[in-house]
Amino acid sequence: MSTVVGGVFTSHVPAIGAAIAKGLQNDPYWKPFFDGFPPVQRWLQQVKPNVAVVFYNDHGLNFFLDKMPTFAVGAAARYENADEGWGLPLFKPFEGAADLSWHIIEQMVESEFDPTTCQSMLVDHSLAIPFELCWPEAETWPVKIVPIAVNTVQHPLPSPARCLALGRAVGRALDSWAGNEKIVVMGTGGLSHQLDGERAGFINTPYDLFCLDNLATDPDALVKQSSLDIIEQAGSQGVELLNWIAARGALTGQVEELSRNYHVPISNTAAATVLLENKALVAA
After folding, report:
1. pLDDT at 281 over 60
2. For the chain, what is the radius of gyration of the CA atoms?
3. Which of 41, 94, 99, 113 holds its CA 20 to 30 A away from the CA of 75?
4. CATH number, domain at 246?
């Protein structure tokens, strides 16, 4: 049987990709953020997952305001990275875990979710940058991927409770998967930030810390508000927290926080990195 070894949660700000390309990891502005990744990298080297199920949000590369699925699941054999306008260098292509994708899709539908199935899909910075952070020296990615895109852009947005339920449906699918893969779950985006309007530059550190404090131990505490409430608390782009909530739902074992990093600001964004381990499952 497959094993869900744990979860990695991190920001995906495009400026991080530019910093990586320019070799600025030890620059005083960037170092406090990049310092959060050695524990994650060491854990990944030790546990050696070979599949990553990634909850993220598309930034107009596949879906735009005229066609915006609430949830979309990639079911391709290969995913190319493309730049959606930030001028970032292109990252390495990704191999897809298509058989697992179809299993997840089937189980999601049985759980009364209706995902858009994408047998052809590009992936943007919100998926590629976290991989560069987690496996910085990799010539090819050591994991196959199942990308799951969550609408955090076009209203009406899914509720936090719906995203947690989605993640739990995916977690049940992973628990029932008959393969022998080691699976890491990833949630990307956030934390609090707003890039436009009268509140541009808005950051809410107390709310971010509330989310970080409850992510491992009480994810239900994060879903007692609506998506609009999260926008008020965390900013219009801070609602990417929905990706974290969905990813946390996919961890069904005894979860323990192994590392956490929080740094303000990175490009007007409260940036965070959290590593959670499914202790009971890893021990098995």
Report:
1. no
2. 17
3. 41
4. 3.40.830.10
| CA 221 – CA 71 distance, rounded (Å) | 22
- 113-137 pLDDT, tens digit per residue, is 999 999 999 998 889 999 999 999 8
CA dihedral of residues 178, 181, 182, 183 (deg, nearest 10): -70
Q: Find out whether the peptide bond into 265 is cis, omega within 30 degrees of 0.
A: yes
Domain range holding 144?
3-283
Contact 87, 273 (CB under 8 A): no
The CB-side HSE value for 195 (13 A sphere, CA atoms) comes to 12
| CA pair distance 40, 134, nearest whole angstrom | 7
Task: Give the whole-angstrom CA distance, residue 122 versus residue 221.
Answer: 33
Point out the residues that are catalytic: 125, 193
In angstroms, what CA-CA distances link 108 with 35, 50, 73, 210, 230?
36, 22, 10, 29, 25
Find the helix packing angle between 38-47 and 125-134, rounded to 10°.
80
Look at the block and give the residue holding tokens 């049985």.
110
What span, in angstroms and rounded, lies between the C-alpha atoms of 121 and 79?
6
pTM of the entire predicted model: 0.94
Q: How many domains does the chain have?
A: 1
3-state secondary structure of 82: coil
CA dihedral 140, 143, 146, 147 (to 10 degrees): -50
